[in-house]
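Minimal example, chain plus adenosine-5'-diphosphate.
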Amino acid sequence: MNVLVINAGSSSLKYQLFEMDTESILAKGVCERIGAEGHMKHTPVSNGKPVFESDVPLPTHAEAINAVIEKLTSAEYGVIGSLSEIKAVGHRIVHGGPKFTESVLINEDVIKAIEECTLLAPLHTPANLTGIEACTKVMPGVPQVAVFDTAFHHTIPEYAFIYPIPYKYYVDNDIRRYGFHGTSHRYVSSKAAELLGKNASGTRIITCHLGNGSSLAAVKDGVCIDTSMGVTPLEGVPMGTRSGSVDPSIVDLISTIEGGLSLNDTMDVLNKKSGVLGVSGVSSDFRDLENAKLEGNARAELALDIFNYQVAKIIGSYIAVMGGADAIVFTAGIGENGPNTRRGICNFLNGLGICIDEVKNDVRGEFREITGAGSKARVFVIPTDEELVIARDTNLIVGVTL
Ligand code: ADP
């Protein structure tokens, strides 16, 4: 069975087509600048066919899905004979609100419930829904499954997910910690449990998904008990352009300092102009920051130090509440490819008896155990695969339903 995985953003749509018997990728690609000039890159993976990359008109997501189907089935770039070879579509849905605790088959009720999450994720939810609508239009009758970034975190206890603000905002408006990157935390924590040679029960694993957006999760006995992102993906550690957790009064202060900047624009400062970009003034990309640091840029160095320190502080807090940790996992763009960041974070944890092996730590983009001699927790680099998790959930749910 072939499963198409879709990750629809406001102006982009990423896709991967999986063959599920072997869990192999047949093709993948991205449609960008949807609604503007339109650009597409399509890479056939399973055969020797050429990569397609060009500007193509993509006025809406439906045209983007059409373009994807056309490329997947074309003589020149295709990997399947016809649309009928796609048995199901799995969608990455960023916010599942309080209702969705696991992946579900999409129907009218599910779409309505996802719509209700718009207040919680005003940018992502409409884009995700547009992806579902486009698939319904272009591939009518093909079952679709929603896989939520928030679902893995639904096991977090009340005392960790309720904010100390008036309780009515939780009861009436669903304002609480949800957490994100759930498919990634779920995937790498279960891999780590396997590597520990144990059933999930009895394990204490801290997963660090460090990319443009970064979050950590504390996973005890195979279930998530805390995570660093909150009601939105702005909370937690500093990120590429997001501030992470700051004193909330800073919102008011920035607005006042900037001559009565609107709430929207002030939030833009925290979402788009802060994080390591805001501190360094150089870039949101850790490669640029490391190069700038090597050239003696003190603020780039400071931005990297702030990031490492805040990540280490969260890890330390999870070690405290879990009564220790058996494994710490680094994943995503920076976690997988940033030896200096991993070293910087673990150096702050030396006092807790955690250390990494300098030689083993020199690894990028592949699995490796990097635990140092005598370390109290094992440390792993585990490449994440959110698309595979989405494809597996979709395959499972559609397989049971058909
Ligand atoms: P997203 O959250 O957009 O999925 P990624 O997980 O792809 O992000 O992570 C992107 C980040 O990974 C960028 O900040 C980039 O700096 C970082 N990164 C990628 N390769 C390297 C590298 N070789 N060294 C350090 N950082 C890297």
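Residues 118 and 125 are 5 Å apart (CA to CA). The chain has a mean pLDDT of 96.
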